[in-house]
Structure formats: structure tokens, C-alpha cells
Amino acid sequence: MEQKKFDYNSFIGMILFGAILLWYLYSNKPAEIEEITTEKVVETPVIAPKNAATNYTSAFENDSTKQISLQNKLGAFSHSAINGSEGSTVIQNNLLKLTIDNKGGQIIEALIKNYKTYDALPLYMIKDNNASFNINFGTTDNRILNTKDLFFEPVLAENGDNTVLSMKLKVSDSQFLEYRYEIKPKNYMVDFSVRSQGLSDVINSSNPINLDWSLIGYRHERSIKTENTMYSYYYYKTENEVDYLNAGNTEVINDVDWVAYKQHFFTSNLLTDTPFNNATITSTDLVKNKEIDTVFTKKYELKTPLALAGGELNYNMKWFYGPSDYNLLSEDQFEGTNLDEIADLGWGVFGFLNRNLFYPIFNFLQNYMGNFGLIIILMTIVVRIVMSPLVYKSYLSSAKMKVIRPELTALNEKHPGKENAMKRQQETMAIQRKAGVSMMSGCIPAVLQMPVFFALFKFFPTNLALRQEGFLWAPDLSSYDAIFPLPFNIPFYGDHISLFPILASVAIFFYMKMNQSQQANMQAPTQEGMPDMGKMMKYMIYFSPIMMLFFFNDYASSLSLYYFISNLLTIAIMLVIKNYVIDEDKIHAQIEENKKRPEKAKSKFRQKIDSAMKQAQVQQAQQKKKSK
Fold first, then answer.
1. Burial readout 405-434 (b: 16 or more C-beta within 10 A, e: otherwise)
2. How many CA atoms does the CB half-sphere of 80 hold within 13 Å?
3. In the structure, what pLDDT confidence band is assigned to residue 440 with cuts at 50, 70 and 90?
4. Which ranges in 75-132 belong to alpha helices (H)?
5. Rg (CA), the chain
6. How would you list the strands of the sheet with 131-138, edge to edge?
7. Which of 212, 197, 209 is nearest to 139 (CA)?
């Protein structure tokens, strides 16, 4: 038998074939999971119900090598990557439009309909990756996964008039993590649930399961300074109380019912039926320089652990993307949530006045007219008429003090010197008491008007009805009314000139000028060693209008309009009272009549004050003798 010789040609051919095979395998090796999404896609037809739209493409080719790679990387959840599709689904009603991405099953666009930004663009709360919703969890095969990286399978359905979107992150057809969205007609609230089925042997209960929701707020209003620094806050409800977090802070809180990422007139909220515990909330100011940082306002973050029940997740929640309007959030559908508190009407008596007085008046007037500038003027007239008795009381006290002022001046001349200070004070009080005049009767009316001032300071800039409503030269009563842009920036003033603050400042100057004589009458003659309040008031006449001019230049023009009209009306009321109501001769006669009456028995409080003053007077006399 002939011996088979070595075939060099076959050997060389095998080497070449092996090299080609190695090159082919290398050039087609499985890519990382982040890169797989760039593979060729295949259109997948989906039939959607009304108020919904879909756009899906296959995430991965059905390639065995890739399947092995995905199984190695994702374990049981490779099913979602192999069978999932890239794409998104739109659910909407007449108020809200949400776009939900298959990747992560999260909202990637939230459009609030019927509203525009300050520059007339559609008003998005979420767009271009400014928000992220993710659940981080461990698996029993020692993997740490994030839902934002995994593909959910969408199923659209209808529940009466509601549109329901079920997003399932599948291990198999009977094992999955589901996000369920249900949007109702004419409602900003969207039902949202997170639940798992058949994953008790897949999710590692010994590892923490964390929910992370973050949002970077877009600028929506004309004045980024006002929007960001004064009315954009991180609100939350914990232990049945609503509180807020200032920018630059982080807190750990428990028993959390909801969090709200408020941006002046609009808010993004997440509510939960099962309170979050050990939740970390963070608010970060993104506006370092208002000339440069003009797109975003704040970053809001929530990090909270989720608890398993029987090895499964089961949380019923709600999304709210809509206006932070008090009229809306105080409706019956929000009863018990306390969401109306994010409307920021002020605390204590200020909020009480806004809720129970000013909003009812404003809403009543709004039902009969559509010009919001006229509504503000009419509302101002109503407020000043209601407050006019206090103005009358204050002016009456001033007139009484004016009548007895010569007696008080003579008293100062009779008992000069610091050593007689207590005696002067005691006799001054006696004269006022006999005349039926009280210093407090002039102060109390002014103090009672202060809550109204501060309540309206909150009312107008936060009232959604005034947003983008014009009046005269002001294009937006919720923002400043610039009539002339400046080519430079004035510190504490701005880069523009607003007209309503100028008018309000002029009005308050004349009001304070007119009020100066009244205040001078209210004050007792300046005693030796005491500061001259008259001189201080003269400085305030000029200081207060300038302060208002600088502070209100970048503020809501509706507030400046209110103060302008309010001061004009107050001046008119004071002139009417002075010239047609108050008769100084009658007041003088009444005071003289009061002096003739026997003095009333002193109250215990008055007796204690008189006793203390006498003791002080005795001590002064003793110290005077020792010094001699």
C-alpha cells in the first residue's frame, strides 16, 4: 500500500480557511447591551385605541449569539431585551399629553396643553431627557439591574372613557414587573401602579429596592429670577403636614404621601397610597448667573426604598402634571391630599385671608368680566372700602392727639430733664386717659392692615388666572411690565424699566407725605434723651418709595398695579375724612367734656403700671440725692 504523502496545498488551505473563520467570528462578535440598540430595526404594527399613538421597532435581531450575550448580562430579564421593542406610546386627554418610552417604561414627554411658555412655545414639564424614573433592584443570580435600561412591552386598552397603558418588563409571559398608566378625560391626574407578578424567586429580597425620580425644571416664565428664587420649591407631605425644602438642601424624611416639584405656576407630583419611608429628597439651584443660566431652574430628586409584600412589589401611585392653581387643587377630587397648599398663598392669617376672602372676591368678579386689569382695580376698591373704617379710626386718633398736643408740650416744659422722665410719662398718660385718647387706638388700625398687605403680596404673583393676561402696556400681569430695556444691568434693579412700580412708588410718596402730619400728631412731643421720630419719618418718606421701586421692578405688574390704585384710593379716603367727616372743634369739645367726668376706676393692669412707674420715680430721686 502506497504511503500517503503530506499535502502542502491542503495544509495551506486549512490555515487560510481558519484565518478567515477567525476574522469572521471576530468581526461579528456580540456587542455590549448599550450598543445592541443600534442594530437594524424592524417595524412592528400595533393597533392603538383612541387618545393613544404608538411607534415601535424591534430592539434586537433574533440572533442566537446575541441571545446568549443578553442572557449572560441580564439573566432572567434577558427575555425583555430579546422580545422587547424600541419605541414609545402616547396617551392623552384634552389637558395633558404623555409619551411613555418602551425603554424604562417611563414618561419621556409630559406636555401640558392649553398653556404656553413665556416665549409662546408648548409647555413641557418633561422633554429631551430632563427627567428619569428608575427602580434599582438585585436578582437572585447576583445581578444589579435598573429598569431604565430594560425594555417594557406595551399593551394599550380602554377602561370606559379612560385610556390604559400596561408596560410589562417580562421574565416570561406569567412573570413580569408592570407599570400601569390610566389617564382620564379632563384630568391632570394619572393613575400609576407598580406591581410585580411571579418574581418572588427572581428579585433578591436581601438587596434594597430603590426608586429614583429626578427632574430638571425648564424655565417657563419671563422673569427667571422671580420664578426660580421666589416660587419654585420642593414640596412634600409627611406625617399629614405639608412642608418644603429650600434649594441646596437634602433631607431624609418618613411617612411621605407625596412630593411635588413646583415651578411657579406648574408642578410635577408623585403621590403614593403606601407612604415612602427613609426617603432622601434633594433640591439643587441651577441658576448661578441669570444672564447665562436661562434654560433650567432647579433639579429635584427623590430616592426612596420600596418594600416587598410577599416577595412582590405592589404600589398604587398617581402622577400629576399640571397647574399649581389654588382653584383647581382645592376641588373635591383633591380632597384630603392637601395639594392646594403648594399654591403658596402664605402661612397663618395670610393664607386664611387669601383662601376665604380674596379668592372668593376675585372669582366672583371674574365671572362677570374678562379684563383682569379692571378686576384688580375693582378688587382694590372693594378692599379699600372694607378697610376704610380702620383708616377713619387712625385719622380720628390723630385728630384727638392734635387737640391735646399743646398740653403735652407744656408738660414737657414744666418737667424738663432726664431726672423727670418718669414723672412726665406718668402725667402724659393721665392727660391722655382723662381726654379719652389712647396711643394704641392709632396703632391698632395700622397693625390690622398689615395682614392684608402681606396676603396680597402672595395672592397676585401666584394667581394663575393673571398669567399671560395683558392690561394697558403690561403684556403679562404675572410678570414685570418693562417699557424700556436698558443696555446694562443696574444692581438690585435690573436691565429694564417697569412703569407700574414707578407709579406705585410715586403714589406711596404722596401718601406718606400726606400721612406725615397725621403721624406727627399721633406722637407725643419728643422728650429729652429720646430719639426724634419725626426726623426718622422724614427719611422714610423718601426711602420707602425708592425701596419699592427697586424691589418691584422685576416683580408681578399686577401687584404694583394694586399698590398704585390702593394708595390713590387711600389718599382720596383720607381727604374725604379730613374735609368732610372729621370736625376738630367737635373733637375738642368732646375731650373737654371727657375731662369733666369722674375718672373711671383703674384696672388691675393699670394699677400695676402706675405702681411700677412710681417706684421707678422714687429710685430716680434716690439716685439723684446720692449723686449730690
1. beebeebbeebeeeebbbbbbbbbbebbeb
2. 30
3. low
4. 78-83
5. 37
6. 144-146, 131-138, 209-218, 296-306, 279-285, 249-253
7. 209
Q: Which residues pair with 159 in a beta bridge?
A: 162
Q: Coil, helix or strand for 4?
A: coil
3-class DSSP assignment, residue 504: helix
H runs (alpha helix) in 178-233: 224-230
User: What's the confidence (pLDDT) of residue 554?
Assistant: 86
Distance CA 37, CA 85 (A): 10
Q: How far apart are CA 98 and CA 182, in angstroms?
A: 11
Assign 122 to helix, strand or coil. strand
Q: Average pLDDT of 34-45? A: 32
Cell numbers at 265, concatenated: 405656576
pLDDT at 414: 63
Residue 245 above 70 pLDDT?
Answer: yes
Residue 357 DSSP code? I
- Inter-residue contact 165 to 156 (CB < 8 Å): yes
Q: 102-135: per-residue pLDDT in tens?
A: 999 999 999 999 999 998 999 999 999 999 999 9
Helix 372-414 with 421-435: angle, nearest 10 deg: 120
Contact 328, 192 (CB under 8 A): no
Report the SS3 class of residue 125.
strand
Residue 360 has pLDDT above 70, yes or no: yes
Residue 444: CB atoms within 10 A of its CB come to 15
Q: Give dist(CA 48, CA 366) in Å, integer.
A: 41
| Cell triple for 542 | 423718601
Q: What is residue 417's predicted lDDT score, i.e. its pLDDT?
A: 59
pLDDT at 190 over 80: yes
Residue 479 has pLDDT above 80, yes or no: yes
The least confident of 55-59, 168-172, 206-210 is 55-59
**What kind and span of H or E run contains 365?**
helix 359-366
In the structure grid, which three cell numbers stand for residue 272, read together? 403614593
85 in Cβ contact with 94 (< 8 Å): no
Identify the CA nearest to 156 among candidates 57, 86, 51, 80. 51
Euclidean distance between CA atoms 428 and 527, whole angstroms: 11
pLDDT tens sequence across 65-107: 666 666 666 767 877 777 778 899 999 999 999 999 999 999 9
| DSSP structural state of residue 60 | S
Query: Can you tell me the distance from the alpha carbon of 50 to that of 512, in angstroms, rounded to the nearest whole number?
Result: 63
* Angle CA 277–279–284, to nearest 5: 160
Three-class SS of residue 208?
coil
Q: Which pLDDT score is estimated for 565?
A: 93
Mean pLDDT, range 55-72, rounded to an integer: 59
Listed residue (326, 576, 363) closest to 462, CA to CA: 326
**CA-closest candidate to residue 359, choices 326, 388, 382, 324:** 326
Q: Residue 242 pairs with which residues in a beta bridge?
A: 237
Evaluate whether 559 touches 461 at the Cβ level (below 8 Å).
yes
pLDDT of residue 14 exceeding 70, the answer is no
DSSP-derived letter for residue 275 is E
Taking the whole predicted model, whether its pTM rises above 0.85 is answered as no
User: Phi/psi zone of residue 424: left (φ > 0), alpha (ψ -120 to 50 degrees), beta?
Assistant: alpha
Looking at the chain, the whole-number percentage of residues with pLDDT higher than 70 is 70
Please tell me the distance from the alpha carbon of residue 282 to that of residue 300, in angstroms, as a whole number: 6
